[in-house]
Amino acid sequence: MIGKRVQNLRLRRGLTLSELAERAGVAKSYLSTMERDIQSNPSIQFLEKIAAVLGVTVEALLQPEEPQDSDEADRLDQEWQELVREAMSSGISKEQFRDFLEFSKWRNRDRDPS
Q1: How open is the CA angle 87-42-22, to the nearest 5 degrees?
Q2: Phi-psi bin for 14: left (phi > 0), alpha (psi -120 to 50), beta?
Q3: Do 52 and 76 belong to one domain?
């Protein structure tokens, strides 16, 4: 999904794959595999470089859908985005985050008196 968003943004800005790769300082082959969803787990540094050239935030590349109109929903989205950014910058992997979620679910089930 990230690859398709990058590709759509690149095409909207009239950039070729080569131009985006060169301006962002990334390998054209890697960008190509990402756009074709062969590589679906790019690093945050890679996304930051691409986002800067495309004139969007990393969060815009990561969002699965268009933002909602509600101020409260936008605030919540911003809070979640900040948490994701903080986790990524601190080096927490997706696997570690999933493990934490599973532990949290287990702990909450254990505490539930029903």
Answers
A1: 125
A2: left
A3: no
The residue segments making up the domain with residue 92 are: 71-111
- Quick one: pLDDT at residue 98? 82
Separation of alpha carbons 102 and 15, rounded Å: 42
* Nearest partner of 6 among 33, 93, 92, judged by Cα: 33
Q: What is the domain count for the chain?
A: 2
CA distance 104 to 110: 10
At 81, the pLDDT band (50, 70, 90 cuts) reads confident
> Which pTM value belongs to this model?
0.56
- Checking if the pLDDT of 67 tops 50, the result is no
Residues 25 and 75 in one domain: no
Distance CA 21, CA 9 (A): 13
